[in-house]
Structures are given as structure tokens and as C-alpha cells.
Amino acid sequence: MGHPLSSPEHARHALLYMWRIRKFEEAVEDLFGRGMMHGTMHLSIGQEASPTGMCMAMTLQDQITSTHRGHGHCIAKGADLTRMIAELLGKKIGYCGGRGGSMHIADVETGNLGANGVVGGGLPIAAGAALASKMMNRGTVAVSFFGDGAMNEGAFHEAANMAAIWKLPMILFCENNGYGMSSSTAKAFAIDDLADRGKGYGIPGVNVDGNDVVAVYEVAQAAVDRAKAGDGPTLIIASTYRWKGHSRSDKNLYRTKEEIEEWRTKDPIPRFISRAIEAGLLNQEQCDAIQNEAIEAIKAAVNEAVKAESAEPSGLLDAVFKAVSA
Amino acid sequence: MSDRMLTMAEAVREAMSIAFEERPEVFLLGEDVGIYGGAFGVSGDMYHKYGADRVLDTPIAELGIVGAAVGAALSGMRPIVEIQFSDFTAQAMDQIANQAAKIHFMLGGALHVPMVLRTPQGSGTGAAAQHSQNLEPWFASVPGLKVVVPSNPADAKGLLLSAIDDPNPVIFLEHKLLYKIPGRDPVPEGATRIPLGVSKVVREGKDLTIVATGIMVNKCYEVAEKLAAEGITITLIDPRTISPLDMNPVFESVEKTGRLMVVQEGPAQAGFINEVIAQLAGSSSFGSLIAPIKRLAGMNIPIPYAPQLEKAAVPQIEDIEIAAREIVKNWR
Fold it and tell me: Chain B contacts of A161, Cβ < 8 Å?
């Protein structure tokens, strides 16, 4: 794609996708509240700049692995909103035909290898995708999104080390939202700067303001260039914050109202709007129109998904294995 | 026809080499599979033949290795993973059971994982409890995994070729005592495939049906030969693929013999072989039984070290012989 401030079109894209993520998450919360969606949900409101900035440095063929808090990654990579909502509502046309739900949306067409219900689960998979890219000379990069909590999983260590020794075209993109469920990074790490972990694997560790879509794009593009040049992986630590709880059961007992309020003032969307207007790429009217466009897109997706046919249990047994072709 | 007698290690290597020649997307990764040739010598000289990129030595990181194989499989490659001992799959279980097994179903069929995970298992080497297990039920109880337990070189070759072709994750459990001994039957030249999910009737008799897995097939075969000389004839069935499981030959045979014995090396409790009993018990063939079903399996203990203790932990030929004789003589 390209730099969010490189043209009005790029600025529009950055803003539109951040709004799409925000409005999607709000719609999910609403569907939940109205009892239309079951299971659980992990909302990424407040974190929109990180996936948007990262994915603007990627091509459609570049791959991602995502997390339980994965709606944003999925949207930023270009997934279809109707099929996403339909999945959450257990509909046949949903990305997983109702078999996966919120935590398991994958989209082959946009290089999305899937969200993951296991913390750290996507990291070795992304390393493998990067290995395949290297073996097949495909020239693509694989980005694994994960949270700060995943950095203490063995999977992080094993994937980072393999990516480093084999110089794989991989990016380890940590959305450090300060908490692994209720455990703060202060409690879960004995280091202050998570990017220091890069040194342990012999790879660059880079910090970035995860609520600044421009800054995220810039470190992301540098990491993509490095990976595609054959110089190996980069660890990116994007500092951000989730405004909502970990999941629907969260009573926010582990953080203060003041802290949440403080982070709300760092909202990535108005921050980017100011930048884009300042740069003369968009005006206020256009920004409002982009917001409305996102709202309408989500509304249309919800309406279509609600009307769609429910997934049926028949055929479940036949869905376990891919049929062996003769 | 060929009369080549290969060991299982040779047969597995031959199957991998054929797949390497057939498909550029096939590669092998694992600990010490390269210049070392594999802990049990299975990859042998493949490193020299195919190079370090396709016979990929990995760090000691089972979770990462299997995860990398899953990611590569999702991206157009066909990895064969070697885990040095099946016991170490415990380290990799998230990628095996939560990722590889579930991706096709859970993600709506958009993606699939054409990966083979080969690993040696079983007791008899004096390596004690963390290097000697038979873990069939761990894998057979996870929907989304196919599980193969070859008992001889010819089957190992044909089944592995099919496993590599398969678009789904296949766990391939090789008994390490079989690696160095030739099988009873010659191994065909070329790329002869044996389909997954088809049980093999190893020999036919009229007095007793034995269903056995892996190395126990060989032990039961010896017993069947010996008892045949005494006029007791046995139908021996090797499921070969334990998931999906082909029970039809078992039903058919039990209807003829009226007696069933099942034999596995792994512990009896919640063992794979119990599935054979359960399916038989729920079938119309159950009515053909004239004897209680006999189960011979490992003791419910970790595999001990000392040779006399290790032997006592799993069924031996003598145990099988005694049990087979008893069931036929006591139930007429």
C-alpha cells in the first residue's frame, strides 16, 4: 500500500480502516448486548492504529497470523465485513461456516492464515509461512501479530529463534496493550523494555507508539524491507491500550478508571485526523464522510449477515478432513 | 516382483526419497535429520542427496518445529516433520492438537495442513519412561488427525507415500525396534501406495481373530505360526491406520471365528485398542462371539528401565501365546 501521509488516497485508507475496525468492534459489542451473538468477544477498540499501520506496509500476498483479539488484523488485511459478522452470528456464509467464530477467522484471499485461540499459537505458524516463502522464493513476508502476554510463551521464543537463525522474512509484531488478561507487563516481565528481547535472538527490537498509525507504518515498512531483502526478522513492540476489558467477563479490577481515561485521550483516530488535515491531505468534511462510510459499511454488513442462513449441523462430520483427491 | 528385503528405516527413507523426487514442495525438518542422518538413522544420506534446504536441521524446539511445519503446509509446502522420540511430541502438542488438527474444520475448510509428523515410539531399548511410550491414544482421540502405525517395512513405505499425498495432518508412529530388522515381505520398488484407512488381514484362520497394532502384529504372527502347527488357526488383522479406523475386516472375521483378542504395546487404560472392542461391542457381530473378548496390553505404568522390568511392562510373545491358547481351548 504505502505511507499513510503519502497521498490523499493513502490517508483516506488509513482513516477508513481505523474507523472500520472501531465501528466493527462497536457493532460486535452491540450484537452481544442484544443477545444476538454467543460465545465471547475480545475487542480491540483503542488499538486500531497498529494493524492498520502494519498492513499498509504489506501486499495482499504477504501473510499474517492473528490472535484471539483479531478482528482488527482481519479488517486491516482486507477481509469482507459481511462474512466476518456472519461468522460471529453462526451463519453459513461466515468465514468458517459458523464452525470457528470470533477467534478463528482466516481469509486465504488476503493472506490471513487465521486468528488463534491459543496465546502464541500463530508465532511458529508465521515462521513456517516465512520459511515456505523463502524456500519457494516467493518474496513475501509473514507477520505474526501477538500480544505482550505471548512474549512469555515458549512458542514466541522458539519462533523468534528459528526466524533469526534462518533469516526468515518474518515480522514479530507485538501489540503491547499493557496486560495479558489481568497481568500487567510490570508483573509478567523483569525487563522494562520488551524490545530488548530482540537482542537475545540477534534481531532488531524496535519500539513504536502503537497509537500512531504513521509511526507504526514507518517501522513496519522498514521491517518489511529488511525481511524482503533477506536480512531476517524484526521484533516490533507497538505500545497501545485496549479500552475495553479482556473479554466480556472482565470487570476491570486490575486497572484504574484514570488509566483508561488517560489512554482514551491518546485515541489513534483523532490523532491521525489532525495529522492528515495538517498535511493538507484531507479536510474535516472528508474525514466525517470517511467515518460515515465506515458506519454504513458495518451497518450493511450486519443487516446482510443477520438475514443470512444459519449454519446447519448436517455435514459437520464431513468437514473434519479435507477430502483426498483421487 | 521384487524380492527386496528392507528394514523399516530403509523403507521409510525410500518413501521420503520418492516423495522428494516427485514433489519439489516436500521437505524434511527435525532435530539432527541432516548430516547426522537422524537419531535412528532414518534420513541417512538424504542430506547429502537433497541438500541442507530440504533436509533441514532444526534447533531443539519441538513446538517451533511442528508450528513451522504447519505454517509451511498452509503456504504450499508439504513438510515431513521428524520428532526424535514420540515422547517429545508432548512439547509440541499445541501445534499438533490445537493447530494442525483443527485448522481445516475450524477455519471453515479454507485452509488445510498437508503435513506428516513421523516419530519413533515404543519400548525395548532401555531408554526408560521418557523415551519409550506408545502414544496412539493421544493422537487417535483428536479429531482432525490421521494416525498411522505401520508394522513392517513394505506397509511403512506404501502408507508413508499416501500420508505425504494426504491433504491432512498425518501422525506416523514408527516402532523403533522395527527400524533395523527386515520385514517378512519384500518391499516393492517404485511408488506403490497403500491407502490410509484400510485394515490388512495379515493371515486367515478360523478359531480366533486377533487385532494387533505396530510391533505386536509381528509378535502375534509368530504365535499364529506356532499355533497353526497345533491345529489352532488365527486371523490376524493389522489396522495400519488407527484413525480413521477400518473395522470391516474385524466384523467379518469375528463372525467366522467367534473369538476376539486385541493386542497393543501401550497401556491398557484408555488405550487405542479399546476402540476396537467398543466398536465390536456395538455392532451386530457382537452376537457371533462365543468367548469374552481378551485384551492384552501394556501395564498401566511408565515404562521402567531395567531389561527384566521393561519386558514385564508390555505383552511378550509368550503372553500372547498363552492367551490365544486359553481363549480357544476354554471357549468352544
Answer: 59, 61, 64
A155: nearest Cα among B275, B64, B111, B53: B64
What CATH number is given for B8-178 in this structure? 3.40.50.970
Task: Give the list of residues 6+ apart from residue B133 with CB closer than 8 angstroms, or none.
Answer: B86, B87, B121, B122, B123, B266, B303
| Closest CA–CA distance from residue B99 to any residue of chain A (Å) | 8
Looking at chain B, the domain(s) classified CATH 3.40.50.920 span 200-330
What pLDDT shows up at residue B2? 65
Cβ of A117 within 8 Å of Cβ of B63? The answer is: no
HSE-CB at A291 with a 13 A cutoff on CA atoms is 11
What digits encode the pLDDT tens for the residues B65-111?
999 999 999 999 999 999 999 999 999 999 999 999 999 999 999 99
* A274 CA: distance to closest CA in chain B (Å): 39
CATH class, range A8-304: alpha beta
Q: Is the pTM of this model over 0.90?
A: yes
- The count of residues in chain A is 326
Whether residues B167 and A322 touch (CB distance < 8 A) is answered with: yes
The per-residue pLDDT for range A136-170, each reduced to its tens digit, is 999 999 999 999 999 999 999 999 999 999 999 99
Pairing outcome for strands B234-238 and B200-203: antiparallel
Domain with CATH 3.40.50.970 in chain B: 8-178
Place of cell 524491507: A225
Residue B258: name the closest of B281, B238, B278, B285 by CA: B285
Q: Do A324 and B99 touch (CB under 8 A)?
A: no
* A152 contacts in chain B (CB < 8 Å): none
The arrangement of secondary structure in B200-330, i.e. its CATH architecture, is 3-Layer(aba) Sandwich (3.40)
**3-state class (DSSP) for residue B57:** strand
**CA A94/CA B225 separation, integer angstroms:** 57
Residue B131 bears catalytic tag: yes
Contact A119, B64 (CB under 8 A): no
Q: Do A321 and B104 touch (CB under 8 A)?
A: yes
Render pLDDT for A175-211 as a digit per residue (tens, 0 to 9): 999 999 999 999 999 999 999 999 999 999 999 999 9
Q: State yes or no: is B10 an active-site residue.
A: no
